[in-house]
Amino acid sequence: MDTRAKFLIVALAAFAMQFAACGSMEEQEGEIIGGVVGGIIGAQFGEGRGKTAAIIVGVMAGSMIGRHIAETMDEHDRMYAAHTLNDSRTGETTHWVNPDNGNVYEVTPTRTFESATGPCREFTIDATLAGQANQQMYGTACLQADGSWRLQP
Known about the structure:
alpha+beta; 2 domains; 5-stranded antiparallel beta sheet
């Protein structure tokens, strides 16, 4: 990915952060991570202005999907996601249905690594929300000193 594409992704993600400030911490993190991932995916398509347009669309779509998934997860869902990050092997999927709203989630750790602050895991979340089409979000979370997992931008 060229320098211009990287700059555009960072600039658009920073712009999206201004709008993300209105939601909960989880919604903000979901929107930021989704936007960055969407921008990276968009950067793989097109040349010149076409590539720029693909990055913009990728950031916007990724931000919306990431925020939507994050805002639908309640405390029950976050507990299951944390359990998956704590106990599941890389590549092992944990599946559950939220009994209150019927949303279906699948969380799969895809990579485990050590950072300067401790263990981190990359993961995917596949979510079927209110019977709609499946939505997918990619992210990285790192284990905190208090035992909680914190999403990384």
